[in-house]
């Protein structure tokens, strides 16, 4: 069914390449395998999220194709791909049993009456964000019989919760904004498709263009624009970039190479119209563009990404007309035939957002109709004086009201259309009146004022300024950095925002951070971890020491940061208190364990002190510490002594310095640790058990103290002990206790050179 996606015609060459890019699906395939080696809990339901166009569907199709061709996952008996957009037409129809539904979608299994528990079954629900189902987990009845009829919503929710076909595996894909529709308690593992890394962006251009000189010319130009380079994380945007740049270079338009998103999408639309003219289609291009633009705006308002006949009628289109448009505008609009009716959508969400901005802009410039306002508001302000600035002000405030970023890119496109150069471009298709420069200047000033009030929206507002080609704030910060005059206390809130934007949208962070950076107690959150991970994995990074103590990075932040630690380019050797204030749930420990046990890791020192660890997470982390690839020599932590003893006695462990100071190990702590210390495989040379006045481990009870010290003696007496430094300061040892300790110090096997 999906084979043509990978072996199709030249127009599908991008997907052929994506197939190669997304072959490393180890996490996802492992999750769908049923059990994790490092977890007792069964992994049944996996949710993979990612931004639009990043390759989630391609991942599922690669998985399906590999299974169908007998290459991988052959332990799965039945695999049922049920994209949510294919399920939508069944909503509201008669009740089905699960088996009846499967027979309808897969007629070849009609002879199968039940799935039962003997076979291994995987359901793939692609596109959670596209579903029209209510997914009412709380009110839907519990369903356990696969032959009992029920509504589609009841069937799907019971499959996800595990009440129906408890042993079946579930894989769901979703855009981030829709992922919360399913409670976290029903998801056993979360994965994410991140899109192209910087190296993969360049590889895509070279493979697609097959001309290294042309590819490097485009790559270098795209790199000069931070907005374009960031967007190239999305494979579909790489395709858009190649399409536009090839056209521009072919037309010798090198003097006006596109530098903003708005210019890029305006050129894409022009390329599409040129193809229409070359094909001699008997329709006016402006009429086609405006109808598609209205559809884009109306459905974006509703948050709809796929459209049916009723949606088309709202914009004065019928199915036949829309089908013709999909055949004409193949790079913009598409139709899929799903059994009984057609489903329409734009090729990518960003194209819908651009066309929606075109519609809003055109409506205001031509009819002074501010479609961003509700009907009653538009009616009540019909006779009031209007300006382009007031229109922009409405759009900015509308975007800032939404916390999910729903209108962010739309706003960037809308403001970008204010530039005269973009109006001239689109003037080849649509009649647009030029805007007054005074209005644009007022919009820029309003954005700068909003930056002081809206801290969470500052990044997108900076992108908006970039679309307006207003770079003064960023240039000001760049001059501060290059001159060495950057002082934290002298920066205004807006300048701080400019610095953040510069660091997060360029390679500036790599050069800005020295080889050793103390970012402790800086009120950092998980939001900064993605850019830190990018800096760590950059080839230009020189960072070897990083202190993140006293920052609330949370599990999500640690997971993001660990991706950077796994990079072959990461040079970090010392990392401090990355887990401060973490709940340590989900895959946080697992990802960190992978990072410290990666063959390419340079990490030698890890400080995890001041954390309270959960037992399950500790076992996962200790497994990483025991890996033959783990190069850690120094560890500061509050891991349990039992687990640490197993690490010390592991032949693969490289730990030489262990700091358990202020851990309040209780009376039995050292007793649990000494088997590891006495192991012939233990390489430990320094052991710190120093305590503050609030936490003493060796003097809580006299009898217990003597037992603990005897354990220390046994360790010092061991012929295999390599311990050269022992720190017991702050434990208030009495004369009698020191005498006990002296026995071990006098041993012929004792190698201690320092004791405190």
From TrEMBL:
Domain of life assignment: Eukaryota
Keywords: ATP-binding, Cytoplasm, Leucine-rich repeat, Nucleotide-binding, Repeat
Domain NACHT, chain residue ranges per copy: 44-178
Family annotation (SMART domains): LRR_RI
First-listed, main subcellular location of the protein, grouped into a coarse class: cytoplasm
GO molecular-function terms, A-Z: ATP binding
Gene3D superfamilies: P-loop containing nucleotide triphosphate hydrolases (3.40.50.300), Ribonuclease Inhibitor (3.80.10.10)
Subcellular location: Cytoplasm
GO (cellular component) term, any one: cytoplasm
Keyword Isomerase included in the entry's annotation: no
Name of the protein described by the UniProt record: NACHT domain-containing protein
Organism: Mastacembelus armatus (zig-zag eel)
Lineage, opening ranks: Eukaryota, Metazoa, Chordata, Craniata, Vertebrata
């Amino acid at each position: 069914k999906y084979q043509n996606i990978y072996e199709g015609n030249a127009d599908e060459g991008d997907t052929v390449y994506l197939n190669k890019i997304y072959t490393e699906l180890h996490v996802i395939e492992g999750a769908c395998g049923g059990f994790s080696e490092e977890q007792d809990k069964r992994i049944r339901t996996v949710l993979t999220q990612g931004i639009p166009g990043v390759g989630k569907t391609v991942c599922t199709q690669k998985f399906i194709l590999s299974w169908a061709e007998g290459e991988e996952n052959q332990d799965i008996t039945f695999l049922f791909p049920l994209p949510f957009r294919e399920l939508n037409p069944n909503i509201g129809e008669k009740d089905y049993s699960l088996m009846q539904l499967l027979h309808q979608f897969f007629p070849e299994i009609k002879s199968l009456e039940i799935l039962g528990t003997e076979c291994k079954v995987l359901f793939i629900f692609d596109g959670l964000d596209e579903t029209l189902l209510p997914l009412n987990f709380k009110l839907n009845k519990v369903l356990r019989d696969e032959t009992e009829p029920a509504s589609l919503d009841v069937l799907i929710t019971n499959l996800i919760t595990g009440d129906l076909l408890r042993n079946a595996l579930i894989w769901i894909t979703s855009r981030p904004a829709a992922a919360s529709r399913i409670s976290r308690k029903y998801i056993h593992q979360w994965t994410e498709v991140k899109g192209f890394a910087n190296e993969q962006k360049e590889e895509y251009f070279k493979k697609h263009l097959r001309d290294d000189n042309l590819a490097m010319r485009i790559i270098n130009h795209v790199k000069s624009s931070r907005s374009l380079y960031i967007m190239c994380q999305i494979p579909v945007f790489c395709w858009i970039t190649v399409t536009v740049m090839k056209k521009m270079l072919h037309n010798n338009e090198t003097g006006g190479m596109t530098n903003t998103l708005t210019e890029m999408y305006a050129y894409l639309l022009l390329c599409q119209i040129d193809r229409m003219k070359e094909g001699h289609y008997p329709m006016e291009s402006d009429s086609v563009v405006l109808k598609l633009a209205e559809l884009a705006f109306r459905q974006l308002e509703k948050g709809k990404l796929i459209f049916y006949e009723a949606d088309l009628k709202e914009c004065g289109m019928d199915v036949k007309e829309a089908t013709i448009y999909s055949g004409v505008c193949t790079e913009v609009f598409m139709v899929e035939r799903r059994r009984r009716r057609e489903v329409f959508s734009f090729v990518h969400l960003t194209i819908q957002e651009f066309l929606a901005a075109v519609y809003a802009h055109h409506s205001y410039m031509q009819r002074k109709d501010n479609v961003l306002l509700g009907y009653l508001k538009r009616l009540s302000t019909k006779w009031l004086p209007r300006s382009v600035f007031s229109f922009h002000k409405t759009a900015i405030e509308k975007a800032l009201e939404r916390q999910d970023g729903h209108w962010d890119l739309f706003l960037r496109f809308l403001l970008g259309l204010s530039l005269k150069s973009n109006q001239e471009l689109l003037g080849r298709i649509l009649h647009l009146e030029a805007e007054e420069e005074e209005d644009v200047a007022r919009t820029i000033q309003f954005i700068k004022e909003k930056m002081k009030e809206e801290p969470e929206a500052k990044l997108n507002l900076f992108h908006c300024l970039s679309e307006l080609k207003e770079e003064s704030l960023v240039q000001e910060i760049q001059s501060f950095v290059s001159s060495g005059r950057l002082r934290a206390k002298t920066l205004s809130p807006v300048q701080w925002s400019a610095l953040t934007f510069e660091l997060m949208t360029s390679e500036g962070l790599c050069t800005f951070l020295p080889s050793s950076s103390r970012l402790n107690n800086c009120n950092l959150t998980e939001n900064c971890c993605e850019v830190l991970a990018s800096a760590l994995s950059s080839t230009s990074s020189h960072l070897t020491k990083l202190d993140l103590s006293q920052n609330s990075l949370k599990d999500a932040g640690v997971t993001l940061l660990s991706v950077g630690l796994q990079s072959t380019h990461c040079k970090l050797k010392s990392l401090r208190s990355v887990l401060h204030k973490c709940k340590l749930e989900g895959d946080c420990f697992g990802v960190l364990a992978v990072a410290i046990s990666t063959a390419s890791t340079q990490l030698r020192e890890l400080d995890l002190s001041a954390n309270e660890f959960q037992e399950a997470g500790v076992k996962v982390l200790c497994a990483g510490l025991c890996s033959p690839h783990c190069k850690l020599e120094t560890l500061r932590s509050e891991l349990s002594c039992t687990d640490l003893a197993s690490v010390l006695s592991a032949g693969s462990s490289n730990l030489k310095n262990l700091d358990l100071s202020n851990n309040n190990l209780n009376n039995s702590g050292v007793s649990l640790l000494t088997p590891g210390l006495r192991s012939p495989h233990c390489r430990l040379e320094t052991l710190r058990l120093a305590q503050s006045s609030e936490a003493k481990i060796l003097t809580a009870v006299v009898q217990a103290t003597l037992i603990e010290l005897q354990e220390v003696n046994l360790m010092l007496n061991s012929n295999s002990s390599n311990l050269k430094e022992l720190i017991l300061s702050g434990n208030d040892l009495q004369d009698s206790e020191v005498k006990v300790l002296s026995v071990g110090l006098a041993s012929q096997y004792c190698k201690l050179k320092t004791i405190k």
